Amino acid sequence: MLFEKFESFVGVNFFTMIFAWINLLILYLVLRKILFHPIKNMIDSRQKEIDDMYESAEKDRDAAKEMRECYEQKLESATEESEEILRSAQRRALLREEEILKQAEEEARRTRERAEEQIALEKRQAINDIKDEVSVIAIQIAEAVVARDVKADEHEKLIDGFIDTMGDQND
């Protein structure tokens, strides 16, 4: 008897088994309708959000990479441009330096020419002054030596001719 009770308790009854399978199928369909679909939809939507986030992050990373490359190119071109500006400024400075030196040389040459002209003019003036003084002295000497009244014009002409002759011999 004990064995029969145990067998009936543990034993397999065909109707019980079918009822259990039908009950399991109904439970599955109900859970599928109530629980599995909403959970699957929620999981799918979360997966879509995650995929979108990854896609957005990838796009942002690509955009940042492009922006970085663009900035690097701009930086490189700015560096090249600044180097060109420096070279240009150096060329202009050298040209300006040459121009200033040429102007200074030209000014020095003109100053030297004016000084030489001034020296030549003062030399002629000094020679003329000396000639005048010599002619006055010569006239006085001639008057004293000759002791006669000689016209000053004639003496001056004679002395000027003598001085010119002496001056031509010295030059």
Task: Label this structure with key terms.
171 residues; mainly alpha; 0% strand; rod-shaped
Detailed description of the structure:
The chain has helices at 2-10, 14-146, 152-170. It is mainly alpha-helical and 171 residues long. It has one domain (14-170). Helix 2 (14-146) crosses helix 3. The termini are far apart.
Count of DSSP E strands? 0
Main sheet specs: none
Number of helices: 3
Distance, first to last CA:
172 Å
As residue ranges, the low-confidence spans are: none
How would you sum up this structure in a few lines?
This protein is mostly helical and 171 residues long.
Question: How do the strands and helices of this protein lay out in sequence?
Answer:
Layout lengths: L1 H9 L3 H133 L5 H19 L1
Helix pairs in contact: 2-3
